[in-house]
Amino acid sequence: YLLTFIVNPGLPKKKLSIDCQLSIDLVVDNPDMYCKICQVVRKPNSYTVHCFSCNVCTEGYDHHCPWTSKCIGKGNLWFFRVFVGSTPTLICYIMVATAVTLGNSF
Fold first, then answer.
1. Beta-bridge partner residues of 63
2. Residue 88 pLDDT more than 60?
3. Bridge partner list, 70
4. From CA 3, how far away is CA 71, in angstroms rounded?
5. Which of 12, 1, 9 lies closest to 70 in space, CA to CA?
6. What average pLDDT does this structure show over 44-48?
7. How confident is the model at residue 93 (pLDDT cuts 50, 70, 90)?
8. How many CB atoms lie within 10 A of CB 1?
9. Where do the H-state alpha helices sit in the chain?
10. Which CA distances in Å does 94 have to 5, 40, 80, 89, 100?
11. Core-most of 1, 28, 90, 103, by most CB within 10 Å?
């Protein structure tokens, strides 16, 4: 959970100075490459979506997670999958440990 929450989900960098002309050409050719709200140029061939819950653009956007209150994207997707996959295992462990403890007390 902690790594899912801490790791950057894939927020694009806001620098336009180095590749400014290339960025301007891409935006003119394809206006969907520029997010007016975040003021970032999205990379070509990347699934970058603006999340209205977080009010940021996220590369490799999967969804906005209500458990972490953060976007899940290419940067933290693996950690999120491990978190979701390990949760049922933890629940089973707690149930067995509780049953054994209660069984020993009677």
1. 72
2. yes
3. 65
4. 13
5. 9
6. 76
7. very high
8. 14
9. 2-6, 20-29, 77-105
10. 23, 45, 21, 9, 10
11. 1
Amino acid at 66: P
C-alpha–C-alpha distance, residues 33 and 62, integer Å: 18
- Active-site residue identified among 38, 51, 65, 71: 65
Instruction: Give me the pLDDT at residue 29, please.
Output: 65
Structure tokens at 69: 């209150």
- The sign of the dihedral angle between the CA atoms of 73, 79, 82, 83 is negative
Is 92 a catalytic site residue?
no
Contact (CB, 8 A) for 95 and 47: no
Write the burial class of residue 61 (CB in 10 Å: 0-12 exposed, 13-18 middle, 19+ buried).
Answer: buried
